[in-house]
Structure formats: structure tokens, C-alpha cells
Amino acid sequence: xxxxxxxxxxxxxxxxxxxxxxxxxxxxxxxxxxxxxxxxxxxxxxxxxxxxxxxxxxxxxxxxxxxxxxxxxxxxxxxxxxxxxxxxxxxxxxxxxxxxxxxxxxxxxxxxxxxxxxxxxxxxxxxxxxxxxxxxxxxxxxxxxxxxxxxxxxxxxxxxxxxxxxxxxxxxxxxxxxxxxxxxxxxxxxxxxxxxxxxxxxxxxxxxxxxxxxxxxxxxxxxxxxxxxxxxxxxxxxxxxxxxxxxxxxxxxxxxxxxxxxxxxxxxxxxxxxxxxxxxxxxxxxxxxxxxxxxxxxxxxxxxxxxxxxxxxxxxxxxxxxxxxxxxxxxxxxxxxxxxxxxxxxxxxxxxxxxxxxxxxxxxxxxxxxxxxxxxxxxxxxxxxxxxxxxxxxxxxxxxxxxxx
Length: 405
Prior knowledge:
Helices cover about 75% and strands about 0% of the residues. It contains 15 helices and no strands.
């Protein structure tokens, strides 16, 4: 058999997937390359922390340093700094709880239970965030270190050593994240916009050929409505990517480079994302309008054909947004401006057709008024998006003598 057994085909599929993953990682910026970068930086930070803790300080528990360095290696520099502060606070709290109760009550079972109760309660403090559980973890390790030490002086030294190792690990982890390719996540904002634009493009590209051919059946319009209604999760993901992109700038030295000083920032992306979100809601309203009864006769067919032409023009606008790229933002904005003008012309033809056919736009039982209204709203969002991108396009992307918009 040429295809091989099921297990062989599954094995080839996995091998292909792995090969494609590595090809993407080495070909362009993306999640795959970010993953490799985080792994490499974490290994570097852990190695440096281990050398300092084990070889230089000859610490009794050197693993605290590399563990801390890896733990706070976050996606963004800002998050690394914030989590480092919270983690150090959690460890210090846990060690202090154990030290206080240990020296007061001694290293017995009742003391351990009290340490656990207090440490777990402190770990619920909202200020510590995701590092809250580290209070109890640090307290337990501190208790183990305390019981294994002899004499108060040695116990104090060993407990202090834990805090010092954690500080060293956090400092090294943060330093590596800042100095070695600090992550800037402009692309996260672009990916979210592209994803929403692709959803809009795919929906419109399915709608306009059907409308050009006549009145869609109810199953078709219900399917369009369902697809438009399923965009809530995509919108949430896009907003999350935008917030991560903003966060990646904070405390990041790369934002001072010439390339990023000229970047438009995220004001434009945020405006485009908001416009796309509203556009998808309006497409959902448009599909509800189409779901209303349209009599199958020759009178409505010219209107639907004009409307299909409008949606085809809107689809071309959405296609530009599926390839939004900071490096070609001005050129894309200009293309968007031209396509938006064409979309406006198609919208005007829809309105003219309603007048020629004397369609009742004010009749609430007919869909024509709703469809014309949603077409106008879609056009307004595209015009707004175009204006925003023209305004925020970086100056170095403009041609010689080209004025700012």
C-alpha cells in the first residue's frame, strides 16, 4: 500500500508538523520564534545564576537562583519586572513567617502547621497576584532549611541565603530579558487585526456571490448570522494581543531605537480594532436584515445585484486589512483609501437603485431600509479606518516631499 498503515501516516503527519514548526521559527517572527527565544534566554539565565550560586557563593541550596531566574522570564520586560518584585515579596514573606514562628516555637509539627496556615493566608493577598502560592513554597523550604541547621546563627544565615539567592536569580533573569533581544510585540496587535479582518473578508466573500445570483434561502442567511455571531472570542483574543503589545513597550530599551521611535504606536491599531469590531456587529445586523423575507421576483433582483457589488467592494477593503504591516503602513493606507472610494461608489449605486425601483425604505416589514443603513455604517467604519492609518503612518514611509495627512 502506497499510503502505509494508519500509524505510519500519523507518524509522517507529526514529522511534517514538526518540520513546518521549525521552518516557521527560522523564517519569520512569530510564536514559534518567540518560543525558541524564551527557551534560550531562560537557559542562559539559569546557567549564569547556577554559576554564581554554586561556584561563586558556594551556597547550600544553589538551585534557588536558577529556579528564580527561569520563573520570572516573562513574555515582556515589564511583566518580568513586576513578577520579580511580587516573587521576591512572596519569598521574603514566607521566610519571615517561618523565621518568626521557628525561633518562637521551635521546629516541631505544630509550628509547621501554623507556618502553613499563615503562609497560605498571606498567599491570598491580591497584591502578590500569581506569585501568591510562592509564599507557602518559600516557607516550606525555609522550614526544611531551618530544621537541618544547627544553632541560631547558622539558621539565620541559611534563611538569609535563600532570600539572597532568590534576589540573584530574579536580577539575572530580568537582566537577560532586558539585554538579550527584549521582546517587542508589535506583531501581536497586527495578528489580532488580521484575524478579525480575515473573518470579515471570508464572510463577505461568501455572501456577495450568493446575492448576485438572487434571493438567498433561509438556511444560507441563518448560516451567515451564526458565523457573524461567533466572532466574540476572536475579538477578545485581538484585544488581548493589543494589550500585550502595549505592555511590551514598558521598560523596554528597544523602544528607544530609531526604528521604534518612528513607529506610530498602538493608537492607530486600537482604532482599527474598534472599527473592525463594530463592522462585524454591523455585518451581523446586515445578515439579520437579509434573513427577513424578500419576495422572489424580478423587482428585487437588481437591488440584490447592486448590494452584492457593494459587498464585493467591502470585501476588497477587508482583504487589505488581512495583510496589515507596520513596514508598509502608508502604502496600505493609500490603497485602502482608493478601495474605500470604490466602496462608496457602490453604496451610492445601491441607494440609486432603491430610488429607481421605488423600494419602501421606511417599511419596517421590508429589509431594504435596514440593508441600506448597514451599508452606510460599514462604509463609515472603513472611511474612519482609512483616516486613522493615514494619520499614524510613520514619516519615514512617506515619499520625498510628501505631506503628512
